[in-house]
């Protein structure tokens, strides 16, 4: 396989080099002056910033623009063939602005050099011509057929949000289920269990974190979570983000694996010219604190630029005691009492009966007469735990570029991050403990003189179980770009590494506990028959166990790309991008524990070896009809064709095409559409087979067919051999309207459909519902297992019987292993309507964006009927909205955001219960101090309040195999009202 891959890599590189040179030949052969000077421009009257961006893309002449200079200005229509200088002069006529040459770059400045432009935070200059928009490999061209959802630096400032993950979580198209810091300890759905480091990913459409591709400046970062299951947004400093571009459409034809639901590209502030310092402090009614300190400085000169950013962010823990609904006894909210049977004092189990141990005694001299027969001491396991961990992070971003000559540029960047977390959690181990008759505190309720079992909560003796960890990441990249006429050739390389070090403390070492229970000395024996800490402190210390793991994900990348004009069509230049990419990925996991043995035990988990990927791609952008052709009903018609061939060293090849079009009619209306094929490669975790990836788990679940309403099921968990890639077909169709008579108005709507097949089914995420929805899981249920089958599983070392269910009580065996067995069809609509403009000298904006899901039809197995799971627990909501309003008057800026999540159904409880909708309001008020000399110059104060009215999440009886809680972490935040003051100084 390695020899085959090497040959393929060489062949691909030779092919790409040939295509690049062949495609560039017309440009190289053309007279340089004619090729560079005259271009066709067909631009309507539009905001000046948009006009300059369009002219930059056509001319290839890089322009740097500070957005305050063009705010509220409109450029005239421009049609015909012009030089770049002529085009810019026409667009800037009467604007009071001019272009100044700085090296090879044109910079927009006031015509009066002494007139100061009003520059606000986030308004540093941005290159317009060299921008590669997310969803396309062609410079200056957006993806045909799809709308880019853009979050600008100004939007980030107006939101009042501190971190990168908070910014993305506010996006209506992003579903919080899966990899988020809250779900990591409160949910087992959507891959949340793989998020051992309490990071946060992106989950567009709710298709899974692994189905959304995250890029930083167009590059893949190292992945986080178990086996590299998601890109961790918490490691990216928000201070260094210039804008966020979201393509909510399949894009494997452009980027390869993972881009099924879409792509999120974080574009960094690489051309910062000046500096900005920021201090922020926030508090959620005193229950949770948040602090941020950040600095970004940059310099742009004739031949280059450099930017350096540092950010430190600290957020305190959110304790369960601070939220009424963070409990297991949910009766006050209309739910059930789901408190744990493990308490201190505990409960004796003998002869199939329960005997509660009385409180207020130390276990010495306890006799059967004092026990409470047929009663259980219960304890809310959430007491003393956290809903959200304490998080402390630091990140450093450095980037630079240098113009070797007028046509050659080299750029490089480094992102390094360090995050530490600390969470008081519910014990991961809870099992009845067998006490021998030799124990000096032994009590026999039935007089059988046989060992008894005790349900006991060790957290009262050892302290709350602590989940602590340290996440470190570094991502680097460099590019060398050579411009040859209308073409640009780029060679790139990169390296990324993320290290997730995780640890659990205050666990029980069962081996040491067994010795302490068998001890006959009452001074040193473990006493399970008294209250908390009735045992000798030194004995308690002797059973204190722990576990640690260290996961390392590494990625190497290299690429060669060429893009530019092939020839001039009547409608404009035909553009092409071709390229080759190589990527090598690897994941390693080392674990050590002191839980079941006398000494520390170290295990190197067997994951597949290095994965090597070779890719060849091409993208063509064809302007079939241009404005000067004066075609009835068509102002502009552009077609985009893209395709990508990838070869994986572990499972073979995949080919993915995409086609899209933009049809600009008259009256500012544009119709768009696209079709494409996408895929997700199986992760290292999906392909892992063997010890550590197999578990047999007995558990009692709700069963409508059972006379008692419950049935004991033996769940088979883990992977099956031969797991292959997931595949999808995606369609979009949309419209965008910018009325010519209403500058600043934009209305857009896009319909999408995803036909997703061969999904790697994580049935364990829906394990509690398998008997409720028998028709969906019939092929995975063995409802008449033999005693021999059950005995074989019970004799396995992979059995984890935390519920203490006897083999004879198992009625059903459920195969919940991961397999390529499920499929899904999802469709919906994204929409955005807004107006931004100046009124009587004041800047005003209004708008609303949202996502409405029509259906999410899932087939859990190949032969099962499909079921619409939209608007249910663990699945995307049908409706999410975010309304926005902003108003700037003089030195004051006001912004508000209304967040709405529609109601849905909790199908995990019987009977099913409706969940109310949830609406919150965010406010942000900022003032810029008058421009005066000294330290106060460029100072901005902002007060932001999220969830202004402190609305609690709607009640959801959320149940996991280990606990329960009264809200749905996938669709609501427990933080509540958080007020923050931010002080920013720009220069």
Task: Give a description of the structure.
The protein is mostly beta strands. Among the domains are: 31-118, 3-Layer(bab) Sandwich (Phage tail protein beta-alpha-beta fold), CATH 3.55.50.30; 683-722 and 771-814, no CATH class. Helix content is 12%, strand content 45%. Strand 45 and strand 46 form a beta hairpin. Helix 3 packs antiparallel against helix 5 (84-91).
Binned, the helix content reads: 10-25%
Q: How large is the count of helical segments? A: 15
**Uncertain spans, ≥5 residues at pLDDT below 50?**
1-36, 113-130
The total strand number stands at 51
Mean pLDDT: 88
Please write the CATH class name of the domain at 31-118: Alpha Beta
Question: What's the CATH topology label of the domain at 31-118?
Answer: Phage tail protein beta-alpha-beta fold
CATH architecture identity of the domain at 31-118: 3-Layer(bab) Sandwich
Biggest β-sheet, characterized? 22 strands, antiparallel, barrel
Q: From the helix content, strand content and strand pairing, which structural class follows?
A: mainly beta
**Cα distance spanning the termini:** 56 Å
**Strand percentage:** over 45%
Radius of gyration: 31 Å
Shape, principal axes of CA atoms:
elongated
Features:
987 residues, mainly beta, Phage tail protein beta-alpha-beta fold, 12% helix, elongated, disordered N terminus
List the helices and strands and how they pair.
Layout: H1 2-29, H2 32-37, E1 39-43, E2 46-47, H3 48-59, E3 63-65, H4 67-70, E4 74-75, E5 78-82, H5 84-91, E6 97-102, E7 105-110, E8 126-127, E9 148-151, H6 153-159, H7 164-169, H8 183-186, E10 212-216, E11 241-247, H9 252-255, E12 262-268, E13 274-283, E14 289-301, E15 304-315, E16 318-319, E17 347-350, E18 353-356, E19 372-373, E20 386-388, E21 390-405, E22 408-425, E23 433-435, E24 452-455, H10 459-462, E25 465-484, E26 487-508, H11 510-518, H12 537-542, E27 544-569, E28 572-594, E29 601-605, E30 611-625, E31 636-648, E32 652-664, E33 669-680, H13 684-687, E34 694-702, E35 710-718, E36 726-737, E37 745-761, H14 774-777, E38 781-782, H15 787-794, E39 812-815, E40 819-839, E41 842-859, E42 867-868, E43 879-889, E44 892-901, E45 904-906, E46 913-915, E47 918-928, E48 939-946, E49 958-959, E50 964-965, E51 978-986
Parallel strand pairs: 3-7, 10-12, 35-39
Antiparallel strand pairs: 1-5, 2-4, 3-8, 6-7, 9-11, 11-12, 13-14, 13-51, 14-15, 15-21, 16-20, 17-18, 17-24, 18-19, 21-22, 22-25, 23-24, 25-26, 26-27, 27-28, 28-29, 28-30, 30-31, 31-32, 32-33, 33-36, 34-35, 36-37, 37-40, 38-39, 40-41, 41-42, 41-43, 43-44, 44-47, 45-46, 47-48, 48-51, 49-50
Helix pairs in contact: 3-5
């Amino acid at each position: 396989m390695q020899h085959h891959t090497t040959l393929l890599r060489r062949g691909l590189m030779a092919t790409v080099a040939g295509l690049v040179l062949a495609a560039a030949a017309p440009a190289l052969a053309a007279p340089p002056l004619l090729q560079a000077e005259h271009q066709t421009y067909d631009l309507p009257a539009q905001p000046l910033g948009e006009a300059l961006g369009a002219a930059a893309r056509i001319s290839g002449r890089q322009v740097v623009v500070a957005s305050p200079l063009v705010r509220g200005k409109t450029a005239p229509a421009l049609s015909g063939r012009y030089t770049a200088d002529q085009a810019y002069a026409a667009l800037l006529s009467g604007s009071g602005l001019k272009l100044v040459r700085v090296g090879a770059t044109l910079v927009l400045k006031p015509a009066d050099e002494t007139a100061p432009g009003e520059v606000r935070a986030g308004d540093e200059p941005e290159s317009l011509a060299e921008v590669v928009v997310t969803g396309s490999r062609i410079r200056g061209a957006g993806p045909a057929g799809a709308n880019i959802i853009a979050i600008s630096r100004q939007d980030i400032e107006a939101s009042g949000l501190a971190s990168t993950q908070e910014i993305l979580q506010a996006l209506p198209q992003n579903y919080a289920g899966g990899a988020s810091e809250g779900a990591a300890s409160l949910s087992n759905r959507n891959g949340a269990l793989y998020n051992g480091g309490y990071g946060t990913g992106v989950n567009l459409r709710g298709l899974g974190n692994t189905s959304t591709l995250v890029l930083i400046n167009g590059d893949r970062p190292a992945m986080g979570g178990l086996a590299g299951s998601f890109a961790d947004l918490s490691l990216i400093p928000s201070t260094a983000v210039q804008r966020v571009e979201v393509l909510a459409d399949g894009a494997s034809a452009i980027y390869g694996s993972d881009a099924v639901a879409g792509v999120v590209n974080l574009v960094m502030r690489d051309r910062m010219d000046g500096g900005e310092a920021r201090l922020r402090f926030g508090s959620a009614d005193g229950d949770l604190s948040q602090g941020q300190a950040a600095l970004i400085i940059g310099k742009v000169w004739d031949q280059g630029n450099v930017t350096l950013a540092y950010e430190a962010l600290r957020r305190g823990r959110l304790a369960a005691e601070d939220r009424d609904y963070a409990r297991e006894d949910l009766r006050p909210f209309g739910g059930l009492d789901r408190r744990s049977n493990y308490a201190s004092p505990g409960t004796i189990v003998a002869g199939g009966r329960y005997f509660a141990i009385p409180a207020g005694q130390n276990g010495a001299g306890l006799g059967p007469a004092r026990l409470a027969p047929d009663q259980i001491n219960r304890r809310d396991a959430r007491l003393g735990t956290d809903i959200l961990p304490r998080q402390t992070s630091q990140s450093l971003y450095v980037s630079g570029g240098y113009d070797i000559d007028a046509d050659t540029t080299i750029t490089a960047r480094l992102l390094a991050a360090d995050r530490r977390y600390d969470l008081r959690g519910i014990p991961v181990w809870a099992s009845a403990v067998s006490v021998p008759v030799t124990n000096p505190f032994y009590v026999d309720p039935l007089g059988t003189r046989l060992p008894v079992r005790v349900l006991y909560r060790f957290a009262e003796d050892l302290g709350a179980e602590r989940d602590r960890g340290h996440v470190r990441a570094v991502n680097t990249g460099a590019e060398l770009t050579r411009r040859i006429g209308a073409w640009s050739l780029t060679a790139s390389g990169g390296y990324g590494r993320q290290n997730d070090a995780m640890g659990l403390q205050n666990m029980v070492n069962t081996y040491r506990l067994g010795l302490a229970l068998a001890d006959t000395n009452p001074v040193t024996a473990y006493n399970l028959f008294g209250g908390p800490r009735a045992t000798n402190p030194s004995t308690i210390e002797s059973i204190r166990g722990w576990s640690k793991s260290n996961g390392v994900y590494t990625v190497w990348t290299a690429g060669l790309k060429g893009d530019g004009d092939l020839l001039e069509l009547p409608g404009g230049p035909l553009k092409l991008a071709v390229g080759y990419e190589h990527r090598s990925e690897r994941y390693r996991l080392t674990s050590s524990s002191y839980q079941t043995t006398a000494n520390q035990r170290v295990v190197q988990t067997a994951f597949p070896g290095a994965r090597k990927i070779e890719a060849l791609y091409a993208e063509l952008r064809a302007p079939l009809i241009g404005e000067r052709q004066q075609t009835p009903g068509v102002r502009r018609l552009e077609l985009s064709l893209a395709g990508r061939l990838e070869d994986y060293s572990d499972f073979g090849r995949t080919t993915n095409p995409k086609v899209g079009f933009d049809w600009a009619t008259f009256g500012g209306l544009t119709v768009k559409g696209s079709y494409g094929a996408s895929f997700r490669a199986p992760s290292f975790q999906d392909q892992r087979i063997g010890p550590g990836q197999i578990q047999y788990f007995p558990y009692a679940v709700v069963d409508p067919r059972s006379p008692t309403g419950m049935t004991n099921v033996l769940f088979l968990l883990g992977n099956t051999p031969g797991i292959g890639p997931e595949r999808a077909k995606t369609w979009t169709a949309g419209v965008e309207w910018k009325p010519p008579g209403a500058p600043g108005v934009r209305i857009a709507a896009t319909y999408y459909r995803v036909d997703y097949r061969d999904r790697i089914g994580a049935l364990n995420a829906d394990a509690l519902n398998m008997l409720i929805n028998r028709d969906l899981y019939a092929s995975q249920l063995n409802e008449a297992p033999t005693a021999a089958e059950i005995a074989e599983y019970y004799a396995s070392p992979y059995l984890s019987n935390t519920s203490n269910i006897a083999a004879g009580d198992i009625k059903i065996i459920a195969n919940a292993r991961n397999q390529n067995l499920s499929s899904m069809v999802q469709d919906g609509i994204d929409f955005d309507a807004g107006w931004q403009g100046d009124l009587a000298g004041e800047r005003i904006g209004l708008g609303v964006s949202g996502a409405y899901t029509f259906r999410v039809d899932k087939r859990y197995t190949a032969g099962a009927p499909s079921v619409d799971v939209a608007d249910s627990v663990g699945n995307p909501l049908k409706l999410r909205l975010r309304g926005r309003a902003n108003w700037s008057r003089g030195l004051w800026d006001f912004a508000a955001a209304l967040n709405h999540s529609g109601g849905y159904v909790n199908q995990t409880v019987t009977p099913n219960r409706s969940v109310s909708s949830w609406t919150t309001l965010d406010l942000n008020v900022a003032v810029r101090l008058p421009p005066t000399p000294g330290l106060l110059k460029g100072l901005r104060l902002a007060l932001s309040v999220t969830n202004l009215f402190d609305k609690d999440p709607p009640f959801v009886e959320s149940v996991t195999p280990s606990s329960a809680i009264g809200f749905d972490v996938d669709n609501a935040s427990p933080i509540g009202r958080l007020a923050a003051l931010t002080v920013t100084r720009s220069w």
